[in-house]
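TASK: fixed-backbone design
INPUT:
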C-alpha cells in the first residue's frame, strides 16, 4: 500500500506530462489505470470505515434486552470496541479514504489532463 501511494502520484503526473507534450496515448492509459487502482484502494478503505461504524449502530438497535448476562456483557464489549473505526493505512501517508484519493488526484495533475482532453475534444468537434 505504501509503495502504491508513493508511486501513484508520480506515475499519474508523468502520464499527464507525456500526454500533454506528445499526445502519447499509452501514457494516458497508464495514468488512468493507476488512478483507477488508487480509487479502488481508497474506496475500500472508506467502505471499511463506514461499515465498522455501522456495526455498533446495528448492534445497539438489536433486541438484546432479553439475552442472558454473559451475552449482554459480550454485546457491551463489542459496543465499546465499535467506537473506534477500523482504517486501512498506507504507512506515513495516512488513512486510505476519499479525501486521500482527492489529494493524490489533485497533486498528480489529473485535473490538467481533464482540461487537455476537453480542449482536444472541442478542437476535434470544431474541425469537423
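OUTPUT:
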Amino acid at each position: 500500500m505504501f509503495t502504491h501511494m508513493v508511486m501513484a502520484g508520480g506515475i499519474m503526473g508523468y502520464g499527464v506530462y507525456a500526454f500533454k507534450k506528445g499526445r502519447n496515448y499509452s501514457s494516458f492509459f497508464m495514468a488512468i489505470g493507476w488512478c483507477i487502482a488508487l480509487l479502488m484502494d481508497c474506496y475500500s478503505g472508506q467502505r471499511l470505515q463506514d461499515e465498522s461504524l455501522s456495526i455498533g449502530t446495528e448492534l445497539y438497535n438489536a433486541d438484546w434486552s432479553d439475552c442472558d448476562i454473559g451475552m449482554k456483557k459480550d454485546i457491551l464489549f463489542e459496543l465499546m470496541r465499535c467506537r473506534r473505526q477500523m482504517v486501512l493505512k498506507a504507512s506515513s501517508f495516512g488513512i486510505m479514504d476519499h479525501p486521500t484519493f482527492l489529494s493524490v488526484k489533485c497533486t498528480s495533475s489529473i485535473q490538467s489532463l481533464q482540461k487537455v482532453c476537453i480542449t482536444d475534444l472541442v478542437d476535434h468537434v470544431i474541425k469537423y
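COMMENT: The chain has five helices and no strands.
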